[in-house]
Amino acid sequence: MNYKEQVKFLRERDSGFAGAVELLKSLRRSSSVVVFSHHDVDGIASAFILQRLCRRLGAKVVVKLPEGFRLLAEELETAVRGIVDLLLISDKGTFASYDDFFRKAENVLILDHHPLDGRPTRCTVFNPAPEYPVGTATALLCHMLATQLGPTDEHDDLVALIGCRGDAVFDPVENRCDDFARPFVERARQLFPRLFRTRLGCPTMYDLVDRRRTALVNQITEAAYAGTLAHYYEAETRGGAYGPELVFTFLNDLARRGENPAEFRSLDDVLGKLPAGAIISRTLQRFYLDWELLSGRVQSPVFLGEVQGVGVYLAFAKEAPSMQSAPFPAILPHVAATQLEPLKRAFGHEETAIIVFCPKEIGVQVSMRGGGGVINCGQFCFRLAERLRRLFPPGAGIEGGGHVAAAEFFAGKSVPIYAVMRELLWMAEELFQQGSGSSGGQEPSVKVME
Predict the structure, then answer these.
(1) Cβ(223)–Cβ(280) below 8 Å
(2) What are the domain boundaries of the chain?
(3) Whether the Cβ atoms of residue 215 and residue 199 lie closer than 8 Å to each other
């Protein structure tokens, strides 16, 4: 099945896709649209494609890229005055609470690829992963809608590809691609062969297996990721430009520059001659320095045990000083992920997983990477959040979830570090007991003073 056939198939067989198409087709020149998208590379790529699509359909579009995963009611109230025709929520989860947002919009459309956290009943939802994980990115889902409503161009293609790489949907160096995204990625490979060509050189954050080789699409995506952190590097940005908006501006400027992405030969070709690109380039250099600093902090993780051939390790480390106030996993877990392959080779595991425990100024961040498909990182972090929510009152800022091979947990400052570590280690023990078939001991009861 090629990409056009896949889009046609979804139009005919996926009610969420069909509903999204009809909702977007109903937009008129007077229609008002507000897009709230995730602040990461995939979310920014999604916002870029959606803005262009809605403008092609004649609507007036405003894009918002707040930090944090779940869209909060107060963020919506602050950003939207009155009632808009369409509220588009992209790459920010599929939450039942989004049904409440109809007080600010005539229609609400959710475009997402994360496992459901509740089932919205009033919103139109296009999410191909409602019950089980599907390897895709929201940027690809947006590109599919844009393709159905047409026309798209090479900049839509490039940015969707960057979004897919940002969410690890494919790896050009290891020649790996998730099935759902394969038709699009193979089409992109034909359009942009230079972006996929492997080369010897400095590895990027996305080169986890072979640290001797990389590809231009990996380098571009890493630069975009570093750009999202620009506001944490105020000296480099010369004014503290908000990172996600900086990257969004850069992608729009790149499209307006009008060069064919198929002609790009180096990262300088992509970033050069654009003011936003120059800021991203400076930010990338600072990102490299922090990466080197953090590499020393994750060199010797603790071995916790093995589950069905998967070695599980724990690293306890602090984030880079500039990232202490970031309410999301900024750099540290990405550095830790580069240890998965060396640990696997050194100790003979079939696969590896690493849990990163990171105390921060604003709370506790736990990240999990790897698992080889045996351990579901997203489920682990989701359950960790569930356990701690039962122990602490609402308002503690406890969130958790993600994908099979990459997931996050966060708890605010009111949750003690020891409480998070205790629950995490209990869950790890349960994991090992389940893997060995042992029922294990009984978990002691805990009461937390409110």
Answers:
(1) yes
(2) 3-186, 195-296, 299-436
(3) yes
| Interacting residues of 348 by C-beta distance below 8 A, sequence separation 6+ | none
Closest CA to 316 of 418, 233, 226: 418
Spatial separation of the C-alpha atoms in residues 340 and 260, rounded to whole Å: 37
Residues pairing with 407 in the sheet: 368, 402
Q: Which amino acid is at 35?
A: V
Neighbouring residues of 338: CB distance < 8 A, sequence distance ≥ 6: 203, 205, 208, 211, 295
Which 3 state secondary structure label does DSSP give 283?
helix
Class of domain 3-186: alpha beta
Note the pLDDT tens digit of each residue in 106-157.
999 999 999 887 889 999 999 998 766 788 999 999 999 999 998 999 999 9
Rounded-to-10 torsion of CA 217, 218, 221, 222 = -150
Q: 3-class SS at 60?
A: strand
Tell me the sheet residues that pair with 117.
95
Tell me the CATH number for domain 299-436. Answer: 3.10.310.40
CA gap 192, 161 in Å, rounded: 10
For every residue of 233-253, DSSP letters joined together read -HHHHTS---HHHHHHHHHHH
Name the residue with tokens 């001659």.
273
b/e per residue 231-254 (b: at least 16 CB within 10 A):
bbbeebbeeebbbbbbbbbbbbeb
Q: pLDDT tens for residues 345-401?
A: 999 999 999 999 999 999 999 999 999 999 999 999 999 999 999 999 988 999 998
Among 130, 138, 84, 86, which Cα is nearest to 108's? 86
Radius of gyration for the chain, computed over Cα atoms and rounded to the nearest angstrom? 22
